[in-house]
């Protein structure tokens, strides 16, 4: 699919491009300033410190960035001192490589931000181990690296202090566009030429992305006290926009139908294609709103869907006159379309009304702190993972062993000579042997799938980037032109580091080659050495994923399946409480909904990773895919009922409806129990069934029909889960 002009503009307005500019500025400025003062060596060392700290500058609340960068600076300084003092003793240096690579890899048990802190420590070790400094120069050199890290930390915090809301606004704008893409995939179910099974796969993949991005926005918004508690129009606009966006996503998720059945019933009438095209236009409108939020511009809608919705209503009513076809499902679709239109208009209204005083009054009484996770940093978390049952422990051992192997190989002149002989010419190995370790650290990931992907992308990207770099050095003779090109390559590389890894590597390689030319060591040998070291590191890392404590997704699927079932049970319990006459707050519903979506996204992501693993390591992939689809349908059915009950007065339903919910809960509990889960206790005494009305109302009958579908789907899920008992 060709890239559209607006997609290019969106990228330049995105947080990714902002990150690229900020990181490039933070790294380049020290070297540039001190080079002009005739102290290039000092400037390069300061920039190395900035490079170590920039890996912790991930999206999130400023307070988390500050804490992570502060801890990273301390670790980087201590590691630089230690490495500088023992680098003369290869045995001691090898021991340090093993211990620190293992320890810093274990940081992943504390979350992604802590893992990036560990990466900063590893980078400090790698950059210092080949640095020719005397023992007397170690402390000043390490202090200079620390100064570079502190410079980057201060620069980054000032950057976010100037525009404290911009990062959150960019994240929300990108998430709106994600939801618009999700809606387009959902719309394709109504287009009769769409393959339903293939479209489900696309839907599940996009759901993973939307859920992950929404979780990131939650942390950015709700953990930032300045945004949530400071009563400004701008902060209120962000919060209200995001709350409505999550509700909109739930509504899209909840609108699930038996698409094969409705195609059979209404495919020949043309009304389904009409609905599909209308949904695509609504998705385009939502995308326009997302672009306006991302670019911080006003958007005045030109689409008026109300007349077309009335036209659609007339067609549905006309179909209803036929005694052979019931148009009830189409009426439900029409109601959903109207609600969807209102929510899109509401999100656009909030964005365009950020100067209105009305936004200072929050209509949502939501306890924001409950919607974000709280990381436990106690030592017990680390200690509990120090065993071979922990995938993190096995991953850390793998990293330590492979880093030691890479270290031994790069320090072995005899082995390097053997590789040179095989290549048919003398290679410049060893001068920058840290590239081998750097490649290993970047490629090795906890899961096989990501390691395999990174391996391919790193190797291909380095070769392509190396060719580009050599061509630039051969044909661009002007130093000024080379510097300008290098700057653009830096911005591009750091902008794509979280978007497209292979593009980042393609841009990073020529930027490094040009940098070495400025340092007086450029040339074809450097390009050859970088490609050779990358190839060597890739081979070592890829072999390790197969041979050293390999971790396969199929070994961990039971936990994902169990968590999804338990989350759905908890969601059903909220519905059971409500229809039995108990008070269930909006916050309780939304927390249960959030848990279901996150657990579902985790399962779907695990399934996608499993499909990238060797066929011999994939267990019951068809059953997993079936479970993923059934879970999507079940959570859609539950969300449909929850959206009708949430925020409304106490609703006492018939005893039959309560029994249906309880049966579904019991069936799912049994499925979770067989997978090693703990059932959620739900008894008749809890819900006060003696107070439930016996005369069913029309709403009760509709609810009974929906709960019947949930019960059927619960049985299907429980049966599918049994195939994973081994």
Characterize this entry briefly.
The protein has helices at residues 5-13, 15-36, 40-54, 62-86, 90-106, 112-129, 135-162, 166-188, 196-222, 225-229, 233-254, 259-266, 271-295, 306-320, 328-352, 379-384, 391-411, 413-423, 434-443, 448-475, 479-495, 501-518, 524-547, 557-579, 586-610, 621-645, 655-674, 698-722. With 726 residues, the protein is mostly helical.
Structure notes:
The protein folds into four domains: 1-164, no CATH class; 168-193 and 233-362, no CATH class; 392-551, no CATH class; 553-722, Up-down Bundle (Methane Monooxygenase Hydroxylase, Chain G, domain 1). It has helices spanning 5-13, 15-36, 40-54, 62-86, 90-106, 112-129, 135-162, 166-188, 196-222, 225-229, 233-254, 259-266, 271-295, 306-320, 328-352, 379-384, 391-411, 413-423, 434-443, 448-475, 479-495, 501-518, 524-547, 557-579, 586-610, 621-645, 655-674, 698-722. The chain has 726 residues and is mainly α. The relative contact order is 0.08. Helix 8 (166-188) packs antiparallel against helix 13 and helix 14 runs antiparallel to helix 15. The chain is built from 28 helices and no strands.
Structural class: mainly alpha
Q: Helix count?
A: 28
Provide the β-strand percentage band.
under 5%
- Compute the average pLDDT: 82
- CATH third-level topology of the largest domain: Methane Monooxygenase Hydroxylase, Chain G, domain 1
The level-1 CATH class of the largest domain: Mainly Alpha
Ranges with pLDDT <50 over ≥5 residues? 684-694
CATH architecture classification of the largest domain:
Up-down Bundle
Described by strand count, sense and barrel closure, the largest sheet is:
none
Q: Over all CA atoms, what is the radius of gyration?
A: 29 Å
Q: Got a strand count?
A: 0
Estimate percent helicity.
over 70%
Describe the global form: globular
Cα end-to-end separation: 43 Å
Order of helices and strands: HHHHHHHHHHHHHHHHHHHHHHHHHHHH
Number of domains: 4
């Amino acid at each position: 699919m060709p890239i559209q002009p607006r997609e290019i503009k969106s990228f330049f307005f995105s947080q990714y491009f902002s990150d690229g500019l900020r990181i490039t500025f933070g790294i380049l400025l020290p070297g540039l300033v001190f080079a002009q003062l005739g102290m290039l060596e000092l400037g390069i060392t300061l920039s190395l410190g900035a490079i170590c700290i920039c890996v912790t500058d991930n999206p999130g609340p400023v307070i988390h960035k500050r804490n992570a960068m502060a801890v990273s600076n301390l670790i980087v300084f201590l590691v630089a001192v230690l490495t500088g003092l023992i680098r003369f003793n290869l045995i001691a240096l090898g021991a340090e490589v093993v211990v620190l690579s293992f320890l810093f890899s274990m940081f992943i048990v504390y979350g992604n931000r802590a893992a990036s802190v560990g990466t900063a420590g590893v980078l400090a070790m790698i950059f210092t181990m080949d640095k020719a400094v005397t023992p007397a120069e170690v402390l000043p050199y390490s202090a200079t690296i620390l100064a570079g890290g502190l410079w980057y930390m201060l620069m980054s915090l000032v950057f976010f202090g100037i525009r404290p809301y911009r990062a959150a606004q960019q994240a929300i704008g990108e998430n709106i566009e994600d939801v618009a893409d999700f809606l387009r995939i959902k719309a394709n179910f109504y287009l009769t030429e769409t393959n339903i099974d293939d479209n489900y796969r696309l839907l599940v993949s996009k759901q993973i992305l939307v859920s992950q991005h929404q979780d990131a926005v939650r942390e950015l918004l709700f953990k930032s006290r300045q945004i949530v508690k400071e009563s400004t129009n701008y902060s209120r606009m962000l919060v209200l926009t995001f709350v409505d966006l999550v509700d909109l996503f739930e509504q899209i998720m909840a609108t699930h139908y038996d698409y094969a059945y409705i195609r059979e019933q209404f495919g020949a009438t043309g009304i389904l294609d009409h609905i599909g095209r209308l949904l695509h236009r609504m998705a385009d409108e939502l995308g326009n709103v997302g672009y306006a939020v991302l670019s911080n511009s006003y958007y005045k809608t030109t689409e008026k869907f109300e007349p077309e919705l009335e036209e659609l209503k007339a067609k549905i009513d006309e179909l209803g006159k036929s005694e052979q076809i019931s148009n009830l499902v189409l009426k439900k679709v029409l109601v959903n379309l109207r609600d969807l239109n209102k929510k899109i208009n509401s999100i656009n209204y909030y964005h365009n009304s950020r100067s209105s005083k009305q936004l200072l009054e929050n209509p949502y009484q939501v306890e924001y702190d409950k919607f974000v996770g709280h990381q436990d940093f106690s030592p017990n978390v680390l200690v509990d993972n120090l065993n071979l049952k922990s995938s993190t422990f096995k991953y850390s051992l793998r990293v330590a062993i492979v880093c030691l192997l890479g270290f031994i190989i790069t320090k072995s002149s005899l082995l390097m000579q053997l590789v040179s002989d095989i290549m048919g010419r003398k290679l410049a190995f060893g001068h920058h042997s840290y590239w081998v370790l750097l490649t290993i650290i970047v490629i090795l990931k906890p899961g096989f799938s990501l390691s395999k992907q990174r391996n391919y992308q790193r190797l291909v990207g380095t070769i392509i980037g190396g060719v580009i770099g050599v061509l630039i050095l051969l044909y661009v003779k002007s130093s000024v032109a080379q510097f300008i090109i290098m700057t653009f390559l830096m911005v591009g590389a750091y902008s794509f580091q979280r978007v497209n890894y292979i593009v980042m590597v393609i841009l990073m390689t020529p930027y490094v080659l040009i940098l070495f030319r400025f340092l007086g060591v450029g040339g074809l040998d450097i390009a050859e050495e970088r490609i050779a070291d990358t190839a060597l590191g890739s081979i070592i890392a890829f072999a390790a994923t197969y041979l050293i404590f390999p971790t396969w997704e199929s070994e961990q699927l039971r936990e994902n399946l169990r968590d999804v079932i338990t989350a759905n049970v908890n969601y059903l319990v909220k519905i059971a409480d409500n229809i039995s006459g108990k008070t269930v707050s909006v916050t309780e519903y939304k927390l249960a909904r959030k848990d279901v979506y996150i657990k579902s996204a985790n399962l779907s992501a695990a399934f996608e990773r499993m499909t990238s693993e060797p066929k011999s390591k994939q267990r019951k992939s068809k059953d997993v895919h079936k479970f993923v689809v059934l879970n999507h349908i079940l959570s859609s059915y539950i969300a449909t009922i929850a959206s009708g009950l949430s925020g409304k007065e106490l609703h006492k339903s018939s005893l039959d409806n309560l029994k249906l919910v309880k049966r579904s809960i019991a069936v799912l509990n049994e499925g979770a129990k067989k997978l090693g889960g703990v059932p959620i206790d739900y008894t008749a005494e809890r819900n006060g069934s003696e107070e439930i009305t016996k005369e069913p109302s029309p709403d009760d009958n509709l609810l009974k029909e929906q709960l019947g579908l949930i019960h059927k789907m619960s049985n299907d899920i429980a049966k599918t889960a049994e195939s994973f008992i081994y």
